[in-house]
């Protein structure tokens, strides 16, 4: 028998009992809807987790730290960082210099150093390997990265660093320039021109009668604001770590600070960052670093944790949704059993006329799969509609929310990816066929004699 | 064409055994028009079911075209029916959702014949049966006689070697009965088809060249009428 003929027979049979077919399909629609909606809620949770983590930081970045809180932990040394750098898929590894001796840093700029910038080492002033700045992924919008011939205290500025200089003699808000356009769309120039004005960096002494240390800065580049990297890209400075170390040593010397540990002690760091070539390698690199005995943290590791939780939630939701599909499956089985009972005579006639049993079975399986398919298609369609309405209502009810870069985020309660739509239809068709299996096999066993009996 | 040997069929009703057919031996030749006559409960319908392979005998064998029908499994039997057997029912048994053409073409569908081809063939036969203007009607829109003619067309469409008919005129009035009976005889003779028909009406059976009379599951008369007035009767 041709498949086209089988399909037509099945379709005609479904059309023949429209009312019953529609009711059964309705059950499948509700079942498919509940599963797809439940899954879509899980998808939305995953998506919002991903968004949240992506806004927290660079997903290819790993932070290695050692806060000396445990004596067993290996210190992070240049040798260790070189080891990490040598690992497969590591793009760059560099310490982020932190100093326990350097207090507030003030940079004076503008004419006669009238304007001031305040910051701290390791936060708004980031010191790292000179050659790592490039690979770490700071995006230049002006100037250049550092090169080997640059003198000490050549630095790169964050995008809005110039606007961070303020006039300490005046009151807020007249003491600074807003970096964003005013109501007329005009962006005012900052007080300081980083590329031309003289910039003097000063370490504010910790003690009242302590001595300050000063160095002159030269800005050669500006990087784009990127909150995945940190504050330094907004209004800070990036520089060679060696300059900061030199500054620290000078400060210790002039203030006669007693330093614990010998002079020849190997340099150790509290914090280092590792940039991996691709997100998919992050886990491997983390494992390798932790194997070496260091603690790490990375947005990706939170992502994993969250994904595991979301999966559990999604599974529970899908389980709840599948209850109604189970009910629908039972109703398909019931409909098919009834249909077969009603059509016993027809089945008998078909057998007498020479229809093979595999075709009879196929006909009924197609009918029940057809019910599942129809319900699946309509169910997925309705799910899209529901999903749209839910998201719309959610966004308007909760009001717009903002991510960490200040951009408006749409609130998603339900997301139906294409794979879920297809999976929904495939699954409901499969359930339909499965529900029809036992009735179809019953149909096959109906004797050809049924056609002869006159009842 | 059809050879029946020592055929016996026993039904179990409760704890009792009922012998429906008892040691039937019968041979029907190619192109023969054979009527099986008997009263209700004589076993004539049971015999037809055995012949058409709708039921398995308790003992004995039915051989059609050299093949033992009573030993075939369902799958083989289905293919055998597709190629060799046509069937006419008392209550027509047309598919209620299908038109006359679709009903006639139905058995060819099982053979995998293309829709265009099988419906062309069906139309030709319906035309022959004077149902030209009823082709696209559903069974409910046809009279009993018309329905049975569609049923007959369906039996002939696959050009089978044998056609079995179970009281084909049982639901028809006497005038239509006459017409249908003449039509059956004419077509089967024209196409040289072996025709086996069950009826309870001895008058109707008289039209046939061969009449087998059953009483209590046994053949009591087997009359062969070679030509007009020359009756060769066998008593068993």
What are the defining features of this structure?
heterodimer; A: 455 residues; alpha+beta; eight-stranded mixed β-sheet; 47% helix; elongated; B: 236 residues; alpha/beta; Rossmann fold; four-stranded antiparallel β-sheet; 33% helix; globular
Description:
Chain A has helices at residues 3-16, 18-56, 78-85, 132-135, 232-235, 241-254, 282-291, 299-342, 344-352, 357-398, 418-444; strands at 61-65, 90-95, 105-109, 115-119, 125-128, 140-143, 154-157, 199-203, 213-223, 237-240, 271-276, 295-297, 401-402, 408-409. Chain A is an alpha+beta fold. Chain A has 2 domains: 3-56 and 303-451, no CATH class; 97-268, no CATH class. In chain A, strands 3, 4, 5, 6, 7, 8, 9 and 10 form an 8-stranded mixed β-sheet that branches. Chain A has a 4-stranded antiparallel β-sheet with strand order 2-11-1-12. In chain A, strand 13 (401-402) and strand 14 form a beta hairpin. In chain A, helix 1 (3-16) packs across helix 10 (357-398). The radius of gyration of chain A is 35 Å and the shape is elongated. Chain B is α/β, with parallel strands linked by helices and 236 residues long. In chain B, a hairpin with a 2-residue loop joins strand 10 and strand 11 (230-235). Chain B has a 7-stranded mixed β-sheet with strand order 6-7-8-3-9-10-11. In chain B, strands 2-1-4-5 form a 4-stranded antiparallel β-sheet. The relative contact order of chain B is 0.19. Helices cover 33% and strands 32% of the residues of chain B.
Short description:
The complex is a heterodimer of chains A (455) and B (236). Chain A is of the alpha+beta class and 455 residues long. In chain A, 47% of the residues lie in helices and 15% in strands.
CATH superfamily descriptor of chain B = P-loop containing nucleotide triphosphate hydrolases
CATH-defined fold name of chain B: Rossmann fold
Give the N-to-C terminal Cα separation of chain A: 30 Å
What order do the strands of the largest sheet of chain B run in, or round the barrel if closed? 6-7-8-3-9-10-11
The chain-level structural class of chain B is alpha/beta
- Give the SSE string of chain A: HHEHEEEEHEEEEHEHEHEHHHEEH
Q: How many beta strands in the DSSP annotation of chain B?
A: 11
How confident overall, as mean pLDDT of chain A? 87
């Amino acid at each position: 028998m041709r498949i086209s003929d089988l399909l037509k027979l099945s379709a005609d049979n479904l059309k023949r009992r429209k009312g019953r077919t529609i009711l059964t399909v309705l059950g499948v629609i509700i079942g498919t809807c509940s599963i797809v909606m439940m899954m879509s809620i899980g998808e939305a949770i995953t998506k919002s987790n991903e968004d949240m983590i992506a806004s927290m930081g660079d997903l290819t970045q790993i932070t290695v730290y050692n806060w000396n809180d445990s004596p067993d932990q290996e210190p992070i040394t240049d040798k260790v960082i070189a080891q990490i750098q040598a690992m497969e898929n590591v793009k760059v590894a560099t310490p982020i210099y932190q100093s326990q001796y350097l207090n507030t840093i003030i940079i004076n700029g503008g004419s006669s150093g009238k304007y001031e910038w305040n910051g701290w080492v390791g936060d708004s002033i980031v010191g790292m390997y000179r050659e790592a700045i490039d690979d770490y992924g700071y995006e230049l919008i002006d100037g250049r990265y550092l090169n080997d011939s640059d003198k000490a205290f050549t630095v790169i500025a964050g995008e809005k660093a110039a606007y961070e200089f303020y006039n300490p003699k005046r009151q807020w808000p007249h003491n600074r320039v807003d970096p964003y356009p005013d109501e007329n769309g005009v962006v005012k120039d900052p007080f300081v021109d980083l590329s031309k004005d003289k910039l003097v960096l000063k370490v504010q002494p910790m003690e009242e009668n302590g001595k300050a240390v000063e160095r002159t800065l030269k800005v050669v580049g500006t990087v784009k604001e990127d909150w995945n990297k940190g504050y330094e890209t907004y209004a800070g400075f990036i520089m060679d770590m060696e300059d900061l170390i030199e500054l620290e040593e000078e400060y210790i010397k002039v203030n006669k600070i007693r330093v614990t540990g010998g002079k020849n002690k190997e340099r150790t760091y509290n914090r280092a960052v590792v940039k991996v070539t691709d997100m998919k390698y992050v886990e491997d690199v983390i494992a390798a670093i932790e194997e070496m005995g260091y603690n790490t943290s990375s947005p990706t590791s939170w992502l994993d944790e969250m994904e595991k939780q979301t999966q559990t939630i999604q599974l529970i939701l899908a389980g709840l949704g599948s209850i109604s599909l189970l009910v629908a499956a039972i109703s398909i089985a019931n409909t098919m059993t009834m249909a077969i009972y009603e059509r016993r005579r027809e089945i008998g006639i078909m057998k007498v006329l020479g229809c093979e049993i595999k075709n009879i079975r196929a006909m009924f399986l197609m009918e029940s799969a057809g019910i599942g398919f129809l319900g699946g298609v309509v169910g997925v369609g309705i799910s899209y509609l529901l999903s749209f309405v839910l998201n719309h209502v959610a966004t308007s009810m909760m009001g717009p929310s903002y991510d960490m870069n200040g951009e408006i985020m749409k609130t998603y309660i339900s997301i139906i990816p294409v794979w879920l739509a297809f999976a929904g239809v495939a699954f409901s068709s499969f359930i339909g066929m499965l529900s029809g299996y036992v009735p179809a096999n019953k149909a096959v066993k109906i004797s050809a004699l049924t056609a002869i009996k006159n009842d | 064409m059809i050879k029946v040997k020592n055929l016996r069929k026993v039904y179990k009703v409760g704890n009792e055994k009922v012998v429906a057919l008892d040691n039937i031996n019968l041979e029907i030749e190619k192109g023969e028009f054979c009527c099986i006559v008997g009263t209700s409960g004589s076993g004539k319908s049971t015999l037809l079911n055995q012949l058409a392979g709708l039921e398995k005998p308790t003992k004995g064998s039915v051989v059609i075209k050299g093949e033992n029908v009573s030993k075939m499994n369902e799958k083989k039997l289905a293919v055998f029916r597709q190629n060799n057997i046509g069937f006419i029912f008392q209550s027509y048994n047309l598919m209620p959702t299908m038109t006359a053409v679709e009903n006639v073409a139905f058995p060819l569908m099982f053979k995998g014949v293309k829709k265009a081809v099988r419906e062309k063939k069906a139309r030709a036969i319906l035309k022959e049966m004077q149902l030209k203007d009823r082709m696209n009607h559903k069974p409910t829109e046809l009279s009993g006689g018309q329905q049975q003619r569609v049923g007959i067309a369906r039996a002939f469409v696959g050009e089978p070697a044998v056609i079995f008919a179970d009281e084909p005129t049982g639901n028809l009035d006497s005038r239509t009965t006459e017409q249908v009976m003449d039509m059956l005889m004419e077509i089967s003779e024209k196409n040289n088809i072996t025709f086996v028909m069950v009826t309870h009406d001895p008058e109707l059976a008289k039209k046939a060249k061969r009449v087998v009379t059953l009483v209590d599951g046994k053949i009591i008369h087997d009359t062969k009428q070679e030509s007009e007035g020359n009756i060769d009767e066998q008593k068993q």
